[in-house]
């Protein structure tokens, strides 16, 4: 196990990067704690795989250093870094038994037979593969095969970090949650440093203690799932995380007072007039907006029933405001009013949270 330090890391695939868009990974520094469960989350092309490959050693960074504990591993190969990787598609030997597949990484490293047997049985039990250790891997379903891949990552006790690159892509939707919760449970049991790459917010938020959100090659926020929900530091995080995402509305700041279309708005923290240059926006999640007898006048446009609540779309002039209406609460008719919870209403300047 190791703490991983990413020190002024930057990567470009072009030989002579000049423009910001030449960088697949923009400059970043971050410390990943020993034994932590991390997710790299972001849309396709945002740089997740680039960052993963820099950590694993498949890529050499254009700039910066990577440390495992106090050792600079920037010039080391993936083998020297002692990493286990689980990919999108199961990497297993079809002709071998489940047992031999799990034993392979250990036998390869000359681990004594008794220790191999102990580890394989332990990991087999953890992954509910215990009853099929003697079966040929070829007979297993896709999720069974991916469990073997996970097991091959978990079986070694000498790895610094286990990396998962979209490991649930080939798994049936109804089994995804089973493996997702299994992985979380495994992390609690074995406490290794784990990095999980995904574009799926549910996977990231269920697995990780800390999520690294990326967009356009840039790390926009590193935080707990609650941080990302309650205090997105960028409007991108507000949009990308949540279903539906955060409402982002234009606003003005005059004499320290925040306004939306001329209406006063209370926010989580005070905004100084000096901070009010650039593009100013308000961010408030649908969970933190309520219908009330006074406030911002809106027209109700439509509502979608999603079980425990309804997602209601309203409009104030040309601006769409979505809110969640809990089950059992009446839908207002005609012109209604909405109010934002001040504690969860934030001001953004050029996309970034003010304060
Ligand atoms: P996905 O989820 O689609 O795999 P990602 O978030 O992992 O995307 P990367 O694969 O890291 O993103 O890509 C980041 C950027 O770097 C993209 O613009 C991509 O086109 C570019 N890129 C990735 N690999 C290479 C390469 N080998 N050569 C040149 N450009 C590359």
Description:
The protein folds into 2 domains: 4-236, Rossmann fold (3-Layer(aba) Sandwich), CATH 3.40.50.300; 245-353, OB fold (Dihydrolipoamide Acetyltransferase, E2P) (Beta Barrel), CATH 2.40.50.140. Helix 3 (98-108) crosses helix 4 and helix 3 (98-108) packs parallel to helix 5. It has a 6-stranded mixed β-sheet, sandwiched between helices. A 5-stranded antiparallel β-sheet has the order 16-20-17-18-19, with no helix packed on it. The protein has helices at residues 48-56, 78-81, 98-108, 113-126, 142-154, 173-190, 201-207, 225-230, 235-240; strands spanning 4-12, 23-32, 37-41, 63-68, 71-72, 83-86, 161-165, 194-198, 210-215, 218-223, 247-250, 252-254, 257-260, 263-265, 280-284, 289-292, 296-305, 309-316, 319-326, 335-340, 345-349, 352-353. The mean pLDDT is 93. It starts with a strand and ends with a strand. The protein contains 9 helices and 22 strands. The protein has 355 residues and is α+β, with helices and mostly antiparallel strands. It binds adenosine-5'-triphosphate.
CATH architecture label name of the largest domain: 3-Layer(aba) Sandwich
* CATH homologous superfamily grouping of the largest domain: P-loop containing nucleotide triphosphate hydrolases
| Oligomer type | single chain
CATH fold-level topology of the largest domain: Rossmann fold
Query: Count the helices. How many?
Result: 9
What amount of the residues lies in strands?
Answer: 25-35%
Q: For the record, give the distance between the C-alpha atoms at the N and C termini, rounded to a whole number.
A: 36 Å
| CA-atom Rg in angstroms | 24 Å
Helix-strand category: alpha+beta
| Poorly predicted tracts of residues | none
Bound small molecules, which ones?
adenosine-5'-triphosphate
Count of individual domains: 2
CATH class of the largest domain: Alpha Beta
Tell me roughly what share of residues is in helical segments: 10-25%
**Spatial shape:** globular
Give the neighbour order of strands across the main sheet: 6-7-8-3-9-10
Mean pLDDT rating: 93
Q: Quick one: biggest sheet?
A: 6 strands, mixed
